[in-house]
Each structure stands twice: as C-alpha cells, then as structure tokens.
Amino acid sequence: MAGSLIKIDEEIVTSAVASVTLTGIDSTYDVYMVRFNNVIGTSGNNNLEVRVTESGTPNTTSNYDFAHKELDATGAFDNRSATNSDHFQVNIQVGNDPLFNEQSNGVMYIFNANNSGEYTFLTYETVFLNPFSGGLYGSQGGGVFTSASTVDGLNIFFSTGNIDNGNFVMYGLSK
Amino acid sequence: MAGNLEFIKSASGTSVSSLDVTDCFSADYDVYYISITKIDQSATGTAIRYRFLDSSNTAITSASYDQATLVMKSNTTFSESRGTNATYGFGAVGYGIRDAEDGVGASIYVYNPYDSSSYSFVSAQNSFIVVAGTTLEGYKNIGVLKSAQQCNGIQFLNEAGSFDNITVNVYGVK
Are B66 and A136 in contact (CB under 8 A)? Predict the structure, then answer.
C-alpha cells in the first residue's frame, strides 16, 4: 500500500467543552499528525495548550519543554520557550470572536509517542488572529515531553475557559 | 485501506506569467496540503506571490492579504517580513528561484478556503536555492485572506517576469 495518512480519531466541537482528547496512538505508527481548524474558545486573549495522555489521562507533570518562533504580521517576531512546563503552549493570545474570524488553525506532528524507551517529540505550525487588532499571528516550532513513557494521545485545551468550536483530527503516517 | 491524504489535482505551466489551480478546493475538505517541487522563474530576484480564486475561479485582488514570514538565509542573519492589506499573499513559496539547477521544496497548508463564512488561512514552510546554486534560504510563513468568501482555487504569480516552469500538487486532508 502506498504511504498515506490514516485517520485515527476525530473530534468535532460545536458546543463548549473543557478540552479535546484525541486517542489511539499505539505502536502501529512511529509518527502521528494532528490537524485542527476553526478552533474558537470561550475566552479571548487565550493560549491554546497541549498535553500528552497516558492510558487516556492527561499527564500534568512538569515535563514539557517547547520553543517556537511567533510570527506576527503587525510587529516584531518573538521567541517563545519554556522548560519544565506542565504543558506545551502552541498558541498565545488567541482571539475568540467568530465575527472577526478569530479562529486557530494548525498542524502538529508527534514522534515516538508510544515508545516507552523514548521521549515524545512534537513539531507544530499554527495560524490565528489575535483579539486586539485582529492581527495575524502564528507559531512554528517544537517541543518534547521529557518522560520516556507510553503516550497514547493528546489533550488540547485553552488556558482559560472552554473550546466552543473546532475540528480536530489525528492521523497515523503509514509506513 | 484508503488513506486520508487524498490527491486532488496537479497543475503545471511553462512560460506562463501565472498559474491558476482552479477548482481544487471544495466542500469535501477543510484543510489542504499543497506541495511545490519545481519552479524556475524567468527574472532574477523576484518574489513568488499567491492569490486565492473566488467561486468563479477569478483571482481575488482586493487589499485583504496579511502575511508574516521568518526569512532564514544560510549565509547571513535571519530577517522578518510582514505586511497587511496587500493585494496578494507572499512567503508561502519562495523568492528568486532563477535557474534550472536551483530548486524549491514548498509545503503549504490551507485552512477553510471553501467556507464562505470563514477567512482563508495559510501556514507554510519552504526551502529553496537562489543565486545560481549558492545560497540556501527557507521561509516560515503564515498568511490570511481577510475576506469571508468561498475560494475555489489558488493562483501563483510572479512579482515580475514569468515562470519558465512551475508544477503544483494539491491534496485534501480528509
């Protein structure tokens, strides 16, 4: 069979939920991809954050390192990074007004997640509008979950409030 | 078993000022992946731009495109490019890809283009060679068309001159 993306899990949010968990990571694939689009939160000026799950439960330990370049259409770019955080922060200051299309979109790749002998690595690229001027923002970077454990999914949430809308899909990259 | 990265269409051109990839977006997908592996520009030092095509496959030329691009050069310091309210998008593909022995690899995601109630968003990464095979550059780019309308396709065009060759492949991420 030719190489392809194989859909593993999908969550479509049309009313408020605290978080979205995409599950189904196992040893079938080494690399998984998550795409999300039209994601809108209850609160504006908010951060979109990610944790890994183990046996379906988000891991809240301080084992998340990340670094990314924050692209900004109206001002100087920033470097965003953290070590020993309790989450990956893939977007900051996301807007939430659907009238102004303040939505988040992006793609993430997850590496070695189910390998209990390896850390779990993440790369991501996102694009969104902020709530202040409707300015175009985006993040491109990566992170690592510094625990060699058996990761089976991702938990996606906003730093404040709920997810009101959005499509989230996880794929395996067939070998 | 069928996959979920589904090839939609390929478009190519020779000695064309622009390339329209028509009817590549539909209600079947929210997210699209575009790969570009072949571009030769006729003019030196010119930007490659893009515009979305409306529901009649006509290029949208309103001043509604914003972009931000991290410009990474192998021979000098990185720089930033940004702009708002332009009549075209920039940064998703590259710049100054002049000679046949040079080349490009561009990876572009497009979000919600066919949704008439949504803006169309872009995130992209690319690497390419300029100046006759001596300089590697790469862009990390985001963009948006700030017009909530149905887009059926995308157009790639030059700042000046034409494409000696260009090939674009479009996939749907189901």
Answer: yes
In one letter, which amino acid is B168? V
Asked if the interface predicted TM-score (ipTM) of this complex is over 0.95, the answer is: no
**Cα B79 from Cα B36, distance rounded (Å):** 23
DSSP string, A62-130: S-EEEEEEEEESSS--EEEEEEEESSEEEEEEE---GGGT--EEEEEEEESTT-TTS-EEEEEEEEEE-
Q: Which two tokens stand for residue A48?
A: 């979109």
Report pTM.
0.93
Residue B157 CA to residue A139 CA, distance in Å, equals 26
Dist. CA B157–CA A147, nearest whole Å = 47
Give CA A169 to chain center in angstroms. 11
Single-letter code of the amino acid located at B40: D
Q: Cα separation of B94 and B21, whole Å?
A: 18
For chain B, what is the radius of gyration of the CA atoms? 15
CB within 8 Å: B111 and A38 = yes
Give A99-150 pLDDT, tens digit per residue.
777 889 999 999 999 999 999 999 999 999 987 767 899 999 999 999 999 9
> A with B: how many residue pairs have Cβ under 8 Å apart?
111
B110 touches chain A (CB under 8 A): no
Contacts of A103 in chain B (CB under 8 A): 112, 118-119, 121
